[in-house]
UniProtKB/TrEMBL annotation, chain A:
Species per Swiss-Prot/TrEMBL record: Desulfacinum infernum DSM 9756
UniProt GO cellular component terms: plasma membrane
Name of the molecule in the record: Branched-chain amino acid transport system permease protein
Membrane topology category: Multi-pass membrane protein
Species lineage: Bacteria, Pseudomonadati, Thermodesulfobacteriota, Syntrophobacteria, Syntrophobacterales
Annotated localization: Cell membrane
InterPro entries: ABC_transp_permease, LivM-like
UniProtKB/TrEMBL annotation, chain B:
UniProt keyword annotation of Transmembrane present: yes
Cellular localisation: Cell membrane
GO annotation, biological process: amino acid transport
Signal peptide positions on this chain: none
Any one Gene Ontology cellular component term annotated for this protein: plasma membrane
Pfam families per the UniProt record, alphabetical: BPD_transp_2
Name this protein carries in UniProt: Branched-chain amino acid transport system permease protein
Keywords for this protein: Amino-acid transport, Cell membrane, Membrane, Transmembrane, Transmembrane helix, Transport
Major localization listed first in the record, in broad terms: membrane
InterPro entries hit by this protein: ABC_transp_permease, BCAA_transport_permease
Organism listed in the record: Desulfacinum infernum DSM 9756
Origin organism lineage: Bacteria, Pseudomonadati, Thermodesulfobacteriota, Syntrophobacteria, Syntrophobacterales
A GO MF label: transmembrane transporter activity
Length: 337, 295
């Protein structure tokens, strides 16, 4: 067997596991944790389009989660529009906002972009907390919005059990991963990479760095907003501190960075490793040791940045390659990152 | 009209304390060219240090300075030396290492949540200290006394820093490193030692700010986040790296917060502050009183 066969086999095993898991895991609590795990993996993968490939550090992605969640929820509650459509509307709105924030900031370097996105997200949160009604739209300020689970079904994206949510977010995650894979191999991917590493050199070669970053930002914020709408339908309750919080923005960035930004598998790997830490420490130590998981996140983040700046995906990729060397020795290496 | 003046004066006083909390941020940026995201958390740690010093010894609140400021200098010095220096060594060619932002954010999370673990989420205040609620009456206006002292501390600290950077040998070494770290190294300046010292100084000013805050402000684990984000806004408003700019930026924020509620719901002032911040960032990123940096 060649490397290509092994790669395919590994992918098939992962897919079968992912799709088969709800048949084995019957507990609603564990399914809930898994759904949130995929939700985070989806968010970090979307974040990675800007934070990874474009080489900047967005620290306000919760704003887009919030835009998606609030748009679809308001449209659903007040106008009876299906969350699937609301999701897309929210996505378009978020990508518009993303471009608006990227337009002036992408010309700046490092810190300013991080600060601008952070302040922007916090500004949105403060505004939502202060607004009860925005024209015809009811936002309910800090109290948030509740979705009564009356009309069940795929069209309304409300289900009585966790399984449908599980498959929907899994499919969303696979789609965004496929998209990332395509982008990484496209002209846009190379432009982003070049612009992230050496903006001056890339510009000298005729790459429109700002423009490719804007494209990435538009896509990233669009995708992030979709997940926001999903989250609203999954938890049936959103408020500014849950969907637009600073902690959410940071957690997205942290997970992606620990997993390995700029790689396809990194953000997913980060979510796989870190989400269980946070969930279980919250379940078992939430009362006695509040905030323990965030201490762990912080320590892991610092250690990874010092000793493994390209994320945990790097040593794991190397280990996988060594395994393949042993299974299929003497073959030339396949291209692929 | 009078109450408007009263609000404005109290706003300027509180704003100068905001500026004081942001001084360290601007010093560290000026030298290391990175934004220390953990600055608010360092302020929070200082506030706990000041709180416990006073609560346990029963000293006058301002006397805590002799313990808190040196302790925070040492804390900042070794934080930079142990946690941040490795990043600088690994990314020597990068002019503004983004990784440092990430690492300091990690420090932020560790400090805030460790404090939560150790001391719990409750708000602590220094009960019956001589400064609490003290007011100065000028005509019919009431001016808060601890804020007045805070204003004095802010001006003194800022002038002290300015003199230190302009007049002393060490200050000149710090400035040389901030201009060109390679050239400074070639001139025999130990670049990393200068970074440690700058970080220590920045953290010590957070200590000074904490001592002035503790007599009238609540101490709780996430108090730093409040000042962290205000600090970012202040230093960008005033121009990153500018000492005077930090004070002026702080005063602007203080004025918006104190005079604003006369015209709108108090919580909206926060949104105004963010709006102003984004506006400055987009229109004039070098800040209102900018030192010009190549952002």
């Amino acid at each position: 067997m060649t490397r290509r066969h092994y790669n395919k086999m590994a992918a098939a095993i992962v897919l079968i596991l992912a799709f088969g898991l709800p048949l084995v895991v019957r507990s609603a609590t564990y399914l809930h944790i898994l759904v949130l795990l995929y939700f985070y993996a989806y968010l970090t993968t979307s974040w990675n389009l800007v934070g990874g490939f474009a080489g900047v550090l967005p620290l306000g992605h919760a704003a887009f989660v919030g835009i998606g969640a609030y748009t679809s929820t308001i449209l659903y509650l007040q106008y009876g529009i299906s969350p699937w459509i609301g999701m897309l509307v929210g996505g378009v709105l978020a990508s518009f906002v993303g471009v608006l924030i990227g337009l002036p900031t992408f010309k700046m370097r490092g810190a300013y972009f991080a600060l601008a996105t952070l302040a922007f997200a916090e500004g949105i949160r403060v505004m939502v907390e202060n607004i009860d009604r925005l024209g015809p739209f009811v936002l309910n300020g800090p109290r948030g919005l509740q979705i009564p689970p009356l009309k069940l079904g795929l069209g309304n994206l409300v289900f009585a059990s966790k399984e449908p949510y599980y498959y929907i977010i899994l499919l969303m995650l696979l789609a965004v991963l496929a998209l990332t894979w395509v982008i990484a191999r496209s002209k846009l991917g190379y432009y982003l990479n070049a612009g992230g590493e050496e903006p001056d050199a890339a510009m000298a070669l005729g790459v429109n760095v700002a423009r490719s970053k804007l494209t990435a930002m538009a896509m990233s914020s669009f995708l992030t907003a979709l997940a926001g709408a999903f989250y609203a339908q999954f938890t049936l309750y959103i408020h500014p501190k849950s969907v637009i919080s600073l902690d959410l923005s940071f957690e997205i960035a942290f997970i992606a960075l620990i997993g390995g930004r700029g790689s396809i598998a990194g953000p997913v790997l980060g979510a796989l490793l870190l989400r269980p830490v946070s969930d279980f420490s919250r379940i078992y130590f939430g009362d006695t040791l509040p905030g323990l998981h965030l201490v762990i996140f912080g320590v892991v983040l610092i250690l990874v940045m010092i000793f493994q700046p390209r994320g945990l995906q790097e040593p794991l990729t190397r280990a996988y390659n060594r395994l393949l060397d042993r299974l299929a020795p003497g073959q030339t290496k396949e291209l692929g990152t | 009209m009078l109450f408007l003046i009263e609000d404005a004066i109290n706003g300027i006083l509180m704003g100068s304390i905001y500026g004081l909390t942001a001084l360290g941020l601007t010093v560290i940026f000026g030298v290391l060219k990175v934004i220390n995201f953990a600055h608010g958390s360092l302020l929070m740690v200082s506030m706990y240090a000041a709180y416990w010093t006073v609560a346990l010894t029963g000293w006058h609140p301002y006397l805590a300075l002799v313990i808190v400021a040196p302790a925070m200098f040492v804390f900042g010095y070794y934080l930079q030396d142990i946690v941040i220096k490795p990043i600088f060594k690994a990314e020597q060619d990068v002019r503004e290492p983004i990784t440092v932002i990430i690492v300091t954010t990690g420090v932020w999370y560790i400090l805030d949540n460790l404090t939560l673990l150790l001391f719990g989420p409750q708000y602590r205040t220094l009960q019956d200290n001589p400064l609490r609620g003290r007011m100065l009456e000028i005509g019919q206006m009431l001016i808060s006394v601890p804020k007045l002292w805070g204003f004095a501390a802010a001006v003194l600290t800022a002038s002290g820093l300015y003199l230190f950077f302009q007049k002393t040998r060490l200050g000149r070494a710090v400035r040389a490193t901030s201009l060109d770290r390679q050239a400074a190294s070639l001139m025999g300046i130990n670049q990393y030692k200068v970074y440690n010292i700058a970080f220590g100084i920045g953290t010590a000013t957070a200590g000074i700010a904490a001592v002035t805050l503790v007599p009238f402000y609540n101490v709780f684990p996430t108090v730093g986040v409040l000042f962290d984000i205000k600090g970012f806004i202040i230093v960008v408003l005033g121009g990153l790296g500018s000492i005077g700019g930090a004070l002026l930026g702080g005063i602007i924020i203080g004025l918006i917060e104190s005079v604003g509620p006369q015209f709108m719901t108090a919580t909206w002032t926060e949104a105004i502050v963010y709006g102003l911040f984004l506006l400055v960032l987009f229109v004039k990123p070098s800040g209102l009183f900018g030192v010009r940096y190549d952002w």
